[in-house]
Amino acid sequence: MAGSSSATVQEYCIRVPKNLQKRYHVMRFNGTLDVDFAKWTQVKMERENNMKEYKGIDEEQPKFGAGSEFGREAREEARRKKLGIIQKKYKPDDQPWILKSYSGTVKKFKGIREGGVSENAAYYVFTHAADGAIEAFPLQEWYKFQPIQRYKALSAEEAEQEFSKRNKHLNYFSLMLRKRLKGDEDAELDEGEETKKSSGKKTK
């Protein structure tokens, strides 16, 4: 057609490396947290050590010496085989991430792996290589990071102790009510009327 300008088309070569030496993951933060990576001066990431929770209470029992039980491990293994229980091995790479960011104040986040994100779709990270081509790296896992709670939960004894103190806390509204009732009594006394008191209760 006359007068139509020829559109310039630029082609890029996308290369997917076969031998991946690095694994790429996605870190996802909630928008309400206002996470700004530019303000971070130092970042430390490590896997959470859940070995104690994984082993459970039974594994903490002594194997030898005082308090141990002869043949307990063999009997437990035989019981598992009989019931068809296959015990999974502890994998450190499957544990959540613990992230510490330093920007004036230290903030701690816990990254939990999200399942089902890459089941029906494949996601890639595109980077420019030195020879001008584009390298595509597949994303392996998606992690959702949430701030770790700084406060400590009360135990049953501490909660009961705090619950017993609930009546000792001052209530502003009850103080105002008492003051108002006391003011009404003083006004009645000034007028020369007697207030009736029965069993220690004040009449309005």
Structural summary, described in words:
This protein has 204 residues and is of the alpha+beta class. 22% of the residues lie in helices and 26% in strands. It has 4 helices and 9 strands. The chain has helices at 51-55, 72-83, 156-164, 172-190; strands at residues 14-15, 24-29, 42-47, 97-103, 105-114, 124-128, 134-147, 197-198, 201-202. Strands 1, 2, 3, 4, 5, 6 and 7 form a 7-stranded mixed β-sheet that branches. Strands 8-9 form a two-stranded antiparallel sheet.
How would you summarize what this structure contains?
By secondary structure, the chain is an alpha+beta fold. It contains 4 helices and 9 strands.
CA radius of gyration: 34 Å
Kindly estimate the percentage of residues that lie in beta strands according to DSSP. Answer: 25-35%
N/C terminus separation: 99 Å
Helix content: 10-25%
**What is the structural class?**
alpha+beta
Mean pLDDT value: 78
Number of strands: 9
Which shape, going by the Cα principal axes? flat
Spans of 5+ residues with little confidence (pLDDT < 50)?
A: 193-199
SSE ordering: EEEHHEEEEHHEE
- Counted by DSSP, the helix tally is 4
GO biological process, one term: transcription initiation at RNA polymerase II promoter
Function: TFIIF is a general transcription initiation factor that binds to RNA polymerase II and helps to recruit it to the initiation complex in collaboration with TFIIB. It promotes transcription elongation.
Family: Belongs to the TFIIF alpha subunit family.
Protein name: Transcription initiation factor IIF subunit alpha
